[in-house]
Amino acid sequence: MKRLVTCLLVFVGIFFSCEREKDATPVAVLLRSGEVVQMSTPGSKIRYEISAYSLRSTLKNFRITSFDSEHGERLFLDSNINQARLEHTFILDVPEFSRDSVPFELKIRAEDFAGNFYVLTCRVVVVGGAQILPTLTGIVVYSGSSGRQNAFSLNDPSQPFVKALADSIDVDIYDHPNATVPEILSREWRSYTDIRFVKINSFNFANATATNINASFRSAVRQRTVEDLKPNDIILVGRNDIAIGAILITDVVDNEGVDNDFYRFDVKLIK
Questions:
Q1: Is-above-0.90 flag for pTM?
Q2: CA 216 to CA 198: how far, in whole Å?
Q3: Is 3 strand, coil or helix?
Q4: Which of 97, 106, 163, 246 has its CA 20 to 30 Å from the CA of residue 69?
Q5: Nearest-angstrom CA–CA distance, 4 and 9
C-alpha cells in the first residue's frame, strides 16, 4: 500500500510537471527596464530595455508598433531575425496630442519559426499636453557686468543667483556682459548647459501649452544665444529638440552704471 501511494505521488508530480511545461508560454517578451503602465508628458523620452526569447524554437521576427486615437497605428521597428534570444533598447519619444490624458499603447511583438508569438502591451497616459501652463511672473535678472543676481536655473527660475558664485551646471541662462562697454546692458543671454533659444514673438504666450511650445521649438532654428532682448520678446528654450519652456520679456532697464540694469520677465515651464 505504501509503495502504491508513493507511485501515485510520483505520477501526480510528473503529470503536473508536464502540465506546467505544456502551459508555459513558448515565446516571452519581458521588460528589464521601463514600466508596463505609466504616465508621461508630451516630448518626454521613455527608455525600454526589452528581452525576448523562445522556449521551443528560434525567434524569426521582432516588431514594435504603437496605437493612439489621434495618430492611429504607427510602425517603429519590424526586424527579421534568427536567434533564440534578443536584447533590445527602445527609446520612445512621447508624442504630442491636442487634448489631455490621452491613452497611448506601445506593442512589442516577438514570433518564432514555429509560429508561436507573444505581444507585450505597454500603456502610457499622456497628460498635460493641452493644458495652459501656469506662469511665474516678475522674475528679475541683472546685468552680467554687475555683482548681482545675473543668472538662473530653469529648475527654479524664480530664484536667480550670481553666476560667479554658482556651479556651472546650474547656470542654464545668464546675461552675457558687454565686453566693449560694460556700462551698457548687453541684452544678450547665453547658457552653460547647452540651452538653445528661439525668439518667436508671434507665439501665443498667454495660451502656451506643452504641445504648442514643443511644436514651435522643434520647427524653428535653435540658437546658442539670444540677442537684442527687448520688452514683449518671447523666447522658447530647450535642449536638443525638446522644449523646456517659454519666456516673455516684460521690461528691460538700462540705467546709468551697471548695478541697476536688469530684465524683468515671466516664465512658463513644461514639467
A1: no
A2: 9
A3: helix
A4: 246
A5: 9
Residue 212: enclosing H or E segment and its boundaries?
helix 210-219
- Amino acid identity at 63: R
Per-residue pLDDT reduced to its tens digit, 208-233: 998 889 889 999 999 999 999 999 99
In this predicted structure, what is the pLDDT of residue 66?
Answer: 97
Q: Give me the pLDDT at residue 100, please.
A: 74
Q: Which residue has the cell 556682459?
A: 177
Pair 175, 167: CB distance under 8 Å: no
Q: Taking the CA of residue 260 as centre, how many other CA atoms within 13 Å lie in the half-sphere pointing to its CB?
A: 3
In this structure, the strands spanning 262-269 and 102-112 are: unpaired
Q: Which of 87, 31, 27, 90 shows the shortest CA–CA distance to 59?
A: 27
CA distance 249 to 232: 5
Q: What is the DSSP secondary structure assignment for residue 163, as one 8-state letter? A: G
Q: Does the pLDDT at position 17 exceed 60?
A: no
Quickly state the pLDDT bin for 173 (edges 50, 70, 90): very high
